[in-house]
Design goal:
The structure is a single chain. The protein is an alpha/beta fold and 221 residues long. It has two domains: 144 residues, Response regulator (Rossmann fold, 3-Layer(aba) Sandwich); 62 residues, Winged helix-like DNA-binding domain superfamily/Winged helix DNA-binding domain (Arc Repressor Mutant, subunit A, Orthogonal Bundle), CATH 1.10.10. Helix content is 55%, strand content 12%. It has a five-stranded parallel beta sheet with strand order 2-1-3-4-5, sandwiched between helices. Strand 4, helix 4 and strand 5 form a beta-alpha-beta unit.
Length: 221
């Protein structure tokens, strides 16, 4: 027999908790294993729960008295690492969305979502999905686009160019680099010129400084 999805609700508004309780109890594959108005009470309760009562899903509000939902995410993750957290809040602020997802929230839904959307979101997370409210998904997409743009703006140096730039950073001359790598000095000069061109600099100190700022040496390790 397939077990029910165990859901814990952490929400400080009693009326909304009641709405969620009524809705979830109508779902044949779900059961509520805890309802709390603060994260502190929810976390304390987990220390005393039997294995059968440990939630699979935590519906977590963000704007809670005491410890906020954002602050609580790492604590829940450490206490019950197998549970998945779905943010269920009124906040569609970009900072809240991105912070919650970066801390490990499995989904982000707004309280304006329909009951069907919330229950579908719970099932989706249990199946490995990541339900995101359409009104906040734009922030994640925008962040992804910005990250991709930043990566595309970073100059790409070949392994040999990075090798030579690293030796330049260690203070070796072009002849010393040629001797160490077993290549001609003219070949080193050609590689150095390409490095300057790609980094848009005119000398070795500028190339080394820019490579450090771009994190090229770290990624080449």
């Amino acid at each position: 027999m397939k077990k029910n999805i165990r859901v814990m609700v952490v929400e400080d508004h009693p009326e909304y908790r009641e709405v969620l309780e009524i809705a979830l109890r109508k779902e044949p594959d779900m059961e509520i294993v805890g309802e709390f108005g603060t994260t502190e009470r929810a976390l304390r309760s987990l220390q005393d729960m039997s294995t059968r009562q440990v939630p699979d899903i935590i519906l977590l509000d963000l704007n809670l008295p005491g410890m906020s939902g954002i602050e609580a995410i790492p604590f829940f993750a450490n206490t019950i690492p197998d549970a998945r957290i779905i943010i269920l809040t009124q906040s569609n602020q970009e900072a809240d969305v991105l912070t919650a997802m970066s801390l490990g929230a499995a989904g982000y839904l707004l309280k304006s979502s329909t009951v069907a959307k919330i229950t579908d979101g719970i099932r989706s997370v249990m199946a490995g999905g990541a339900p995101i409210d359409a009104n906040v998904a734009k922030y994640i997409l925008a962040t992804l686009k910005n990250t991709m743009s930043e990566k595309s703006d970073t100059p790409s140096l070949s392994d040999r160019e990075m090798e030579i730039l690293t030796l330049l950073a260690k203070g070796l001359s072009k002849k010393e680099i040629a001797d160490q790598l077993g290549i001609g000095v003219s070949t080193v000069v050609t590689h150095v010129s390409r490095v300057y061109e790609k980094l848009n600099v005119v000398n070795a100190p500028s190339a080394i400084d820019k490579a450090h700022n771009l994190g090229l040496f770290r990624s080449h390790r």
